[in-house]
Amino acid sequence: MSIQVERDTTTTGAATGAGVEHVRIAIVGTGFSGLGLAIRLKQRGIADFVVLERASDVGGTWRDNTYPGCACDVPSHLYSFSFALNPDWTRTFSPQPEIWAYLRDCVDRYGIGPHIRYGAELLDATWDDGARRWRITTPQGPLTADVLALGNGPLSEPSIPAIPGLDGFEGTLFHSARWRHDHDLAGKRVAVIGTGASAIQFVPRIQPAVGHLTLFQRTPPWILPRLDRPISDRRRALYRRLPAVQRLVRGLIYTQREIGALGLVYRPAMLARVEKLARKHLEAQVADPDLRKKLAPSYRLGCKRILLADDFYPALTRPNVEVVTDRIREVRPHSIVTEDGTERAVDTIIVATGFHVTDMPAARCVRGRGGQLLADTWRDGAQAYLGATVAGFPNLFLLIGPNTGLGHTSMVYMIESQLAYILDCLQMMARRGVETVEVRPEAQATYNDEMQRRLRGTVWLSGCASWYLDAHGRNSTLWPGFTFAYRRRTRRFDPASYALTPRMAPVGAAG
Length: 511
Ligand code: N01
Hints:
- The chain has helices spanning 32-43, 61-64, 96-109, 199-206, 233-241, 243-266, 271-285, 289-295, 312-316, 374-377, 411-432, 441-455, 483-490, and strands at residues 2-3, 21-28, 49-52, 116-117, 124-128, 133-138, 141-150, 172-175, 189-193, 212-216, 223-224, 307-308, 321-324, 328-332, 335-338, 343-345, 348-351, 366-367, 396-398, 434-439, 498-502, 509-510.
- The chain is an alpha/beta fold.
């Protein structure tokens, strides 16, 4: 019997009859996620993929965040791919330029460069159910792909606060993730809005140069000593000669960090000891009781991201700094007015107000079966199965999808778990002649019920507001457990949770 199917049977990696290029896999983004997937594909001998990058260089958030003092708050040895350890980290917490250089080096080392399309921002990705492929649009033109992997990352779209009058500010205004290096801050009256992980890193760097710095703090963060130190030349030479030693150090750091999950997820009461440490840190660094009071958090440590800094509090004690805790009422062309009516003249405003995490903009350009927008599917909160696949969106993989974020250790570990899952799925598809995989709605629902049940009682739902929670107060961001538990669940692709469609025979094939 001959099976007639009306679909494009163009071989992968080639232009279709209509001149549209087709690839097996399209990856969005060149941060740790997108590059990690590209490297893993290459290592498996799969070369039929493209990586779509909106900018003109790789690196994702580590390319975009160039503010003074930008560095990782996860120890260097843990913040790299397990298959590409870097013996050359110069500090125990790597500065941004080193991480960015590491990612660029990975591109060269694994030959990813030819696969990357620069200036190729994802404008639209629509699942074509007839052709069983993704139709993708970027400024570089159309493209189709069997599989789409979104590695655009949760920390890629800066969030600008909705403060009345901000648009009409006539001085210089920028977000910390879009630092204006061309704007000289020397002697300027600078306002910084926000006291999150970004602000606490750049405030100590700009404080000595600016004329006056006003720090607008809505909620004080919990801050622990950072204890960053250089890694000696001898130590680095040892890691180069004996990678096993570095791997051992990495393992020890990993174990120590996992213990942190105990307090955050299972026994928030354990965090009381850490809170004591943080309070001592504040007391040791800030003598002025009024300032200390402003900086003391009144919610449970860990509810928001725990920050590490040795130089933030001291910077706030300098004579040219004022910490303002009154809410901002409005911004005027040359000033900021707080709720108590005080008007402060400023030349520059730096908003360090975080990112669109729970309302990922990329979700507004991905359409699944029936044209359903991912953003609409997630109207009541983002959810996915294993943070990786979404019902109604065949052959779509999310990297760092819902409930895969962490408050205690390296995201690279979670990313590598997801990569293993995706690769196992691709292998299964090739082996079994499967053309599409789509998670079953009931598997996704059961999984998300479990996530939300496990999140109850965690420190993240202990009463503070944070970017971990969506507009409905639901934590759609963090993984509620140990990272090795997530790895165990993603080690193998589980076809039973999916609807699988067999590959259609090409037109005219004998059956
Ligand atoms: O952003 P944030 P971030 N008016 O969302 C305040 C990662 N990261 O860029 O707490 C006034 O943490 C907001 O106040 P509140 C890391 O995962 C990693 O600093 O909401 N203030 C808060 O103080 C991190 O968590 C590294 O009350 C407003 C701040 O802005 C994530 O990126 C380094 C406001 C936002 O803090 C984001 O960090 C840097 C408003 N309307 C960043 N809106 C590493 O080292 C918000 N705020 C790996």
